[in-house]
Amino acid sequence: MFPRSGERGSVGAGVLLPGSRVLTAAHVVNLALGRSDKYDAAHPGKDTVLSVRVGGHWHEARVMVWIPVRERTKLYWKGDLAVLELPRGLPPNLVPPPWRPVTVGLPVCAWHPAGRAEFSLARSEVVAVDPEFAFAVVDGSDNGATIQHGYSGGPVWFDEDRAVVGMVVAQLKGDEERAHHPDQVRRRSWCLPTQRVRQELAAAGAAHLLDAPHHADEPETSSEAFDLADILNRKVDSTKALAKCGREVARKCGLTHPRDGSAPSVEEFARVLLTYPRALAELTRVLFATKPGAVTELLDVGARIPHCTLLTHNERRRLTALLESLPNQIITSVPALVLDALPDIDLPAAVLTDEAWLDPDAATGALEALLDQLERSRRAPATERPSSPLLPALVCFVLHVAAAAPDGCATELVDWCAKVVRRTQGHQAALEERLALARELTCRLRAPNQNAPRLLVRLRRVDGEGDTCRFTVRMWRRETTTWQRVRTEEGHVGDLTATAAKIFTAASQLWRTGTLPIVELLLDRTDLGLDPHWWKAPGPLNTRRALGVDFPVVFTCPELVEQGSDAEFLRERKRRLHRGDLVRIDASVGSLDEVYGRLAGEMDAVGAVVGEVDPPFREVVVQYCLAAGLPVVLFGRGENGWPHAEIRLAGIPPAALPHEVRQYRRGIWNEPAVHVGQPVLAWSDDNGPLPEDLYLDDPSEELA
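RESULT FIELD:
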């Protein structure tokens, strides 16, 4: 239970885990801290102390694992887990319960943490389980209490197996038949099933926390245990050396050890290495200078142990301190740097969520989760050439951060990498290769539109053709982390001048020194022939200004993207946008089958440059590319001058094109249209809002 600061009573419950830890809901921790938003994603901080009552006594606890709420809707959400550590430990008679998978039909119960009244026991039945185990729905019985405020974070208990099958999270509105019966509605709630709890903890590198560690009196029979014991027998070949290694590992892991200089048995030592995540790294730290062969063998076995980490305690603390000291613009670009360094690595989407990195209060927790994942990841090649030496994935990432960091920070990060590579028997030459590659990518691929403000404009043509078109307009803006509606008269129909003036006004409000907002237009398929770059709005002293000269203008077509057969290709190519290539479609291509042949299977082909092809066919090619899952399509308007623009723009990294196209438009403002090309860019990345954000937004959040 978690008392609010300065109050008596409880705000939620928890489940006792092995190793003197408690699992609860993240929103319960927020309530205990008195935060105004119980779904606040910001990490409470490593030094924040909470009070937890276990076994009738109050204990101090600190947040060990933080998985905040994400993707929240009115019905359910993801995340919402926190693991608390009790530094002083618990009495041995307090045995954590086992966890079992949840299934439909189980009779279950939950308790209010106060536990004083007879009706604090809520009896329920599991009536539905989401196919992906995102949540389970329970219906309360007519006897006993209902699950309500205060139950969150507590166990969903299956008495027959004496096991936990989930964690209470929230009440849930009843189905249509019971929606008008207040008591029935009140008795329906939902929980996180055991399966989902394991998935969430696994994504944070903490799945092992649910299960009891191996008992000291039981022999370890895994192949890893035999291999570790064999290495210790062969490589640490004296009692004195084994005793020294044991003392060092025990001291670093916070364990006691005999004071008489005696050595542990190799079986005991192997059990420690299997139980404590950083123990094996600490052992390699002791041995790397004198027993390099032992280190290589130990690391090979460690790669097979799921919870075994790469770094020693001091290495992890040092790295965290170095990364947290980086300028904010480096921290916010971490998702892009991860993809630069490890484009094929499989990380949970929550680890690289933009909002977490753009919010300084949440970035610490996001950083810890990312480091946890990368410590347990496979090794990556130093460069893209065949047979390149392997480096730890985490080291590759840190080198790419160093390449983007200021000189002083960069030197310290590279030095940190060199020490880790030396301890793990890596190749110094591989480190230098990877660092050179990272610096090259940083110079070539750091797009000027990284984290730029955005204005999203949904245009719908009501009537008219060409310069007589009239539109309705909806707009959203994103300045930092979230999208907000821009207040407009959505039913109002305006001509080109009025429409351009609205967009100019909204975009100008997003102007920041040195950073132009990107204006992204959502167009219907029939309107892809529009050329809004030259749309004029009134300027000072009776002058006119053009939208595509003042701002980077791009467009996309939701209709084509949604109806296209390659939505998965689009998502994958967006991930590679910062490093991919553009395929040229020229006059030698005469059919869509030939266009397909240029693109098929080329996942690094993130876009197309449509060269000098017949205008009617050009329109078809552009539509095909959008439907086929290309986030970048660069082409020209008009009949003349396109080669001039193509030569200038075709070699630009794809992610930099919005600003480069604007610069080109600016440069040709006073040139006759017959002499220069008029480049147009269909371009999309992962920064747009979800469809439900565009149509289910809160009117109270509209901007004047």
